[in-house]
Amino acid sequence: MKKILAMLLTGVMIIGTLSGCGDGTTEVATAGDSNVSAQATDNASDEGAAAGADTQVLNLRTTAFGNNYDVQDMGWRWMMGDCYEGLYRNVADEDGEHFILAGAESVDVSDDGLVYTFHLRQNAKWSDGQPVTAHDYEYGWKRLLDSSKGYDYASFALNVVGAEEYNKGTGSRDDVAAKALDDYTFEVTLKVADPTFDAKLVATPLYPTREDIAEAAGDNWGKDWTLCVYNGPFCMSELVEDNKMVWTKNPYYWDADNTKLDTVNWFLVAEDSTAATMFENGELDVLQTSGDYATKYSAAAAEGKYVELTSDYPGTVTMNFEFRDGGLSGLMKNVKIRKAISYCIDRDEMVEAIYGRYKPAYGYVAPAITFDGEPWRNQVEEPAKAEYEQYGGDPAKLQALFQEGLDELGVTTPISDITLNLLTSGNTIENQSEREYIQQVISQKLGCKVELNSVGDFALFKAQRDDNQYDMMIGGWWSDYNDPLDYLNTFHTGYYDSYGYYSNPEYDALADSLVGENDMAKRKEIYTQMENMLFDDCALAPIYYNTKQVFLQNWVKDFRTSSFGASQELYITRIEGRNR
Length: 580
Hints:
By secondary structure, the chain is an alpha+beta fold. Among the domains are: 84-211, Dipeptide-binding Protein, domain 1 (Alpha-Beta Complex); 314-546, Dipeptide-binding Protein, Domain 3 (Dipeptide-binding Protein, domain 3), CATH 3.10.105.10. 32% of the residues lie in helices and 21% in strands. The strands form six sheets. Strands 11, 12, 13, 16, 17, 18 and 19 form a seven-stranded mixed sheet that branches. The chain has a four-stranded mixed sheet with strand order 1-10-9-8, with helices on one face. A four-stranded antiparallel sheet has the order 4-5-7-6, covered by helices on one side. A hairpin with a 2-residue loop joins β14 and β15. α1 packs antiparallel against α15, α10 runs antiparallel to α14 and α18 (505-513) packs antiparallel against α19 (520-536). It starts with a helix and ends in a 5-residue tail after the last strand. It is found in: Cell envelope.
């Protein structure tokens, strides 16, 4: 194993990821070649020179640009949360992460928790100077529920009176109780009180949308950035494909006087080594990295050269199984076989050797998720930990468990003649090391063969996944709101088919029992039962929990990252004392 790791890890450089939640998979985005990276470096140098000392320009790095500007479609939230704004905003400060009022100036909630009346800011405007009104919220919410649009996040609003009927085609749009009472009063009536409702309001599908502009754009809405208007602190003002994106301050933003940055430049830089050079030269102001680079910059930060920010992030990378047909091998129907595969993976070893960051995962709900004000993982033990330790990566025990599963299925094929198929996407060195590690540990510890089906393009990965052309696949979930339910609902039958079509009536009954349940102690009990059931069934094999490790130039002030809504709070960031 040590030799395998040495071979896999030679020259490993970790590339940043952009992750899409909507279909519940890990979307690793890579783009560009050396020419693109070199061009980005040249552009950043030009921007830095033009910026001068304390000019309010922030230079950032990404590994890909999104292609969806429709807030109801969730899109890429690191842009959506900075260029758009909803009723609430999720912020991270010295008190931790919490919600503040944003598009709403105040909110009244009825005693029974069913009627929310949002009083909107009358000085909020779109980037073309038009006011942001309650009609924009009503249109956005009802657009989300329009089944002809096919939005994945329609479920966020199904608890609104009349919403489910309209979404299913059995009710009228006019009967959806999300209505503008006047230009600046937006009223929402729920069917049952929901403790997670407030948390969902920071997610972009419940942001407002301008009806006149969206309808005029037609099929191009969300695809052509030049058709967009923005109601957040920044506006997208330039896009050079595979190279550079520019945001500029929105002069009509209601809190523009307190938005310090004039320009945010995003440079597409595929290689960590190039990004590191740019950061060291002062051409990038912020860098999210890992491995040897993270070790190097942590030491430099300890000496005062940079500033280091580390935090948990609400994402869990997993290996998922194909439940509809039992996978290409037909073996994934058996829980003992799934567990034997899962327990082959030494999470601690894999996290240290492959990634050099993250946290080993033995549960599904990530440590960044809180419940009733406290981190979930501080309240509830990781359900896979104890059983995993019983096997301890012992090949004899794992093969015996695997064989028991074969016997239960009536399969007489020797383990050595069995082939399992692992579907993955992404073509970075980290992606390659990840899948080759999993291939090696499963084949060595179980004695079977593991065939890799690796596609670089996410669209191809999705096609293979949706056609059930795998036994196991690398996926994951990045939560859209701060409650364990957003994780647990991914295995609720009919919610997210991309999770291998796992279905358990007892699990669904527990999920359904949460509707209208406002006793937090009872909800915690049900959540715990649901997460434990997932691991009793081995519905998934968790690999690691996401973390963020960000390095800043010393002249970057008040830069904060958050877990929901925007990934960074750039509307309060400023530049002070830039020295190069």
